[in-house]
């Protein structure tokens, strides 16, 4: 039966189910055990499964991921937490030069079933290094899957699918959505991990987003509807691979596309989407693909982050500019 729960709780329940189902699943990270994580996403797991399966690690991100790689080589399925997005960079070398390449380097003989959980994005008033959106850095790396749920149901099922994957998955959790609640049916048949989903039908323009910006795009579509504009909202769910077929199908219907993400627009994932869709849909587009995102600047202090992050007005402005062509 479906149960309404917050995203943080949905991830917790998904990890619990995976730990129960497979003794080779491990959870590792800074403060994930006794504390239950700084956002309490892993609350109660160490109590129920023991400290040999839910492991409090030293404050050493490179060591956490390196250890997970070794465990994966021995047949385990580690789920590691990077406590905050900005802390991942000490582990970037391990992720890029080892984790992402093991499968190819071994000609497919070595599997790397490692999930790297990263709470990411802004909107919580955090201090420096706690509100980054580095998804494009990982999407650029061949051999990594990069996903980001926008709601509790997807958070539950995408975690299940990530843990079952034999390839490494970078699982970006939008921390500002941890407390948003939605119905979660733990007996449902989930959509494929990398399949985008239309969550609001429209005819005039497509809004494409993932993770924390999907809810904003729904609000934009609702506001635009009051002015007689019909916007389609596409939840991409996966950044690598990207479901270009779903984006193309939507754009061929609406003929306009605005891509929204928290990360800076400059060299962001929206640029790849814009380029590919321009190639695929050149004769369907009635306006250039527009992008809305953060600025090409270091993430600002908390008192300024609402000026930095995309909001309703900035996305509506892009919608108006697109419809004006």
TrEMBL record:
Among SUPFAM superfamilies, the record links this protein to: Thiamin diphosphate-binding fold (THDP-binding), TK C-terminal domain-like
InterPro entries, from UniProt? THDP-binding, Transketo_C/PFOR_II, Transketolase-like_Pyr-bd, Transketolase_C
Q: Name one Pfam family in it.
A: Transketolase_C
**Needed co-factor(s):** thiamine diphosphate
Which keywords are on file for this protein? Oxidoreductase, Thiamine pyrophosphate
The GO terms this record gives for MF are: magnesium ion binding; oxidoreductase activity
Where does the Transketolase-like pyrimidine-binding domain lie? 5-180
Protein's name in the database: Alpha-ketoacid dehydrogenase subunit beta
Q: Which species is this record about?
A: Streptomyces malaysiense
């Amino acid at each position: 039966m479906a149960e309404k729960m917050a995203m943080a709780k949905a991830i917790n329940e998904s990890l619990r189910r995976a730990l129960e189902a497979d003794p080779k699943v491990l959870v590792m990270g800074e403060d994930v055990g006794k504390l239950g994580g700084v956002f309490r996403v892993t609350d109660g797991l160490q109590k129920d499964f023991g400290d040999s399966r839910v492991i409090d690690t030293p404050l050493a991100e490179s060591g956490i991921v390196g250890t997970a790689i070794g465990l994966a080589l021995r047949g385990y399925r580690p789920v590691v937490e990077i406590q905050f997005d900005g802390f991942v960079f000490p582990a970037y070398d391990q992720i890029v030069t080892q984790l992402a390449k093991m499968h190819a380097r071994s000609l497919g003989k070595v599997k790397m079933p490692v999930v790297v959980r990263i709470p990411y994005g802004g909107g919580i008033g955090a201090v420096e290094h706690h509100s980054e959106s580095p998804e494009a850095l990982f999407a650029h790396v061949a051999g990594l899957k990069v996903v980001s749920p926008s709601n509790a149901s997807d958070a539950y099922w995408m975690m299940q699918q990530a843990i079952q994957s034999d390839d490494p998955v970078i699982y970006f959790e939008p921390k500002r959505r941890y407390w948003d609640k939605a119905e979660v049916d733990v007996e449902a048949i989930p959509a494929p991990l990398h399949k985008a989903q239309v969550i609001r039908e429209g005819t005039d323009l497509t809004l494409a987003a993932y993770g924390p910006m999907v809810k904003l795009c729904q609000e934009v579509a609702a506001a635009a509807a009051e002015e007689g504009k019909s916007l389609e909202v596409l939840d991409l769910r996966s950044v690598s691979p990207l479901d270009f077929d779903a984006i193309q199908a939507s754009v061929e219907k609406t003929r306009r596309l605005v891509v929204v993400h928290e990360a800076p627009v400059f060299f962001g994932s929206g640029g790849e989407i814009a380029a590919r869709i321009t190639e695929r849909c050149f004769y369907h587009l009635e306006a250039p693909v527009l992008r809305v995102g953060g600025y090409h600047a270091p993430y600002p202090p908390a008192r300024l982050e609402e000026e930095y992050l995309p909001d309703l007005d900035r996305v509506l402005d892009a919608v108006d500019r697109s419809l004006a062509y």
